[in-house]
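Q: I'm teaching a short session on how sequence maps to structure, and I want students to see two examples side by side rather than one. Could you give me a first protein with its sequence written out and its structure tokens following it? Keep the formatting plain so it prints cleanly on a handout.
A: Of course. Example one:
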Amino acid sequence: MTSPAARPRSRTPGLGVIQGTALYIASVLGTGLLVLPGLAAEAAGPASIVAVLAVIGLSVPLAGTFAVLAARYPDPGGVASYVRRALGGTAARMTGYWFMFGVCAGAPVVAVLGAEYVTAVAGIDRSMVPVIALAILVPPFAANVFGVRVAGWVQFVLTALLLTVVVGVVALAAPAVQPANFAPFLPNGWGGVGTAISLFVWAFAGWEVGTHISGEFRDPRRAIPVGTAIALVVTGACYLILQIVTVGALGGTAGDGTVPLLELARLGSTGFGAVAVGTIAAIVALGVMNAYLAAFAKLGASLAANRDLPAWFSAGAESGGVPRRALALTGVVVLVYFSLMLWGGLELTPFILVHTSSMVAIYAVGMVAAVRLLRRGTFGWWMAVVAAVLCAGMLVLAIGSLLPAAALAVAALAVTLVRRGRRRMGATRESRGEPAPAGEPAPAAEVAPAGEVAPASEVAPAAEVARAAEVAPAAEVARDSVRI
């Protein structure tokens, strides 16, 4: 059940471990780096360090499951392609729409956050925030026009710069760490730790991004697990060390400022502080956008290849292809959200809710698909089971903000109902001997997208079904069942 988009066009060199790791790190080590250490310290005090350790542990099954799926089923459709295999076309369309049109709401949020920090630390008038935000959006789009391999090397440079500056800030602030600042360890009880955990859950989101570019890796079965493991260690270490230094150096004032990273940098060098934080904010925004745009573009082309978007956008969906049309569609979606944000006075909360509700829905459905796809009893399957339970809990916590995700799910369901209605009308015309309207294909020629199962009353002959679903040879099926 490989989607049309997953067929390789050529054996051109793709992403290696270095580029892939950089993209993974950027998708996880995002804007939370700027604000979460202070917010978590305010909620839980020194015990916020425990919260970071807990979320690192919780991230392992989620990241591991996505790595297993991406390595075994490299497809630009990402999570949507796994859902298509396990749960059918309608659920896959919902998943694709959640990412393409829901998660995409976070793109202008990242750009505006980056612009806000740049203006704050550089003393620029806040009226320039929209202009700087647009300037932040341009380089990632330009890099992705040349394909994910170019974007991968750009990301490697951005990630190296980000880690260098973060290490510099920590090194400057480390001498100011005081053991007395770690007592009392639980000033707000375990409830405060729970609040801090809920904050850091969102900091460790982003592991699904790599699934959309999995087909671009030279050796996905090796590069993706290695890249995921390295990214887990690097991002976990960054957040953990930064949290320890934040609590130890700033003490009870860690949550007072809006930019705790700036306060840390100023402990070692007043002049360096503003430059460091402004640089980190810009790099984080550019890096997150660069990583996500590659995923949006590949997913859009894959959705078009499966007729979930107009077929014109499918160009570049194949491995090694550059999905410029889908990238342009992503640009339109981002500009629509950005325009709405400007109209609302740069109020970010509604767009963050659209983004987060879609992410939670994707994770929940994706883990259910993983449990069904991976061989029962294997290590990968057990990781998927644990991740599915954790995602169910996240879904309960986010229940109040799931309306945007529900609206996109209704849109996906509507497409399915319209298609079934057309097929029934076509079958009725055929039984009466009536010709199909001009420009409309005969029902026999209309094939459901790969993985979407037609109702029992509309099942085609066995040979036609096999062709439509693109059933893999027996040897390929056997490979897919190998233990992980």
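Q: Perfect. Now a second example for contrast.
A: Example two:
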Amino acid sequence: MTKHHDEEDEDRSPILEATDRQILSLLEGDGRMSWTELGHQTGLSTSAAQQRVKRLEAKGIICGYHAALNLEAIGAGITAFIFLNPIDPEEDERIPDILRTFSEVRGCHSIAGAASYLARVQAPNTSHLDQLVTRIRKECHCGTETVVVLDTMFDDLGMLGTR
């Protein structure tokens, strides 16, 4: 029997049971939650909670734990999104590797539409942002369009928790 591309493949699209979803939701909210508290919140023993998390890590469902930074406090309070359109289509695949070398770049996405990539950047001020965009244009050999964030209402909502 031939498998269609939209059929669920257990390796690519795991079906999670309710307890695993609850664990993921809790860890999205507090990645430093103790095993004891995680067990208490899920009705599992401490060791069972730890074993579940280790299994979710081994399956690649939990990919890491991160600290949320106050970007203004570290001198990177300006957020901007830069659309990048390569001048030479042959250079297109090099852009992500070049962007990775800029400390101000926080993310890079291949996108559909007029541009090829969307980069999220952090800068201390608009003057620095202007210089950054100029450097990106030169090093990536691309045209850009930049959108500056005025205010962020929310960012990085959890996928499984309540909103």
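Q: What should students look for in example two?
A: Point them to this: The chain is about 35% helix and 20% strand. Also worth mentioning: The helical segments are 18-29, 35-42, 46-58, 95-99, 126-140.
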